[in-house]
């Protein structure tokens, strides 16, 4: 695990402790529809249907969408069991996560 990964996961943990995160497909979809989500993260090992659903919904509502980590990792850092998807409900946390996600994507190329 690189330093960038640690930063993203620690931001997710902080967000969860601040109660500015929702997790689980139903809650995340609701947050996207009522536009309270700033960033949506779906686990890389989620089903293709789940990825497609959130990719399309986030695209429609103009919400940044990322595939990152595993269901176990997203669950662990959001304070739950396995989670396929999480939504960040805070603009500050959201902007930080977007920044680290973009750095992370550039490093993987």
TrEMBL record:
Domain (Ribosomal protein eL8/eL30/eS12/Gadd45): residue spans on this chain: 7-92
One Pfam family matching this protein: Ribosomal_L7Ae
Record protein name field: Ribosomal L7Ae/L30e/S12e/Gadd45 family protein
Protein species of origin: Coprococcus aceti
């Amino acid at each position: 695990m690189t330093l960038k990964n640690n930063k993203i996961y620690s931001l997710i943990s902080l967000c969860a402790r601040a109660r500015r995160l929702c997790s689980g497909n139903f809650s995340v979809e609701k947050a996207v529809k009522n536009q309270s989500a700033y960033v949506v993260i779906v686990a890389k090992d989620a089903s293709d249907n789940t990825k497609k659903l959130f990719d399309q919904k986030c695209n429609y509502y103009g919400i940044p969408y990322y595939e990152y980590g595993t269901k176990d990792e997203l669950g662990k850092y959001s304070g739950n069991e396995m989670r396929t998807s999480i939504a960040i409900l805070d603009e500050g946390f959201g902007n930080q996560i977007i920044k680290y996600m973009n750095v992370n994507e550039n490093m993987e190329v």
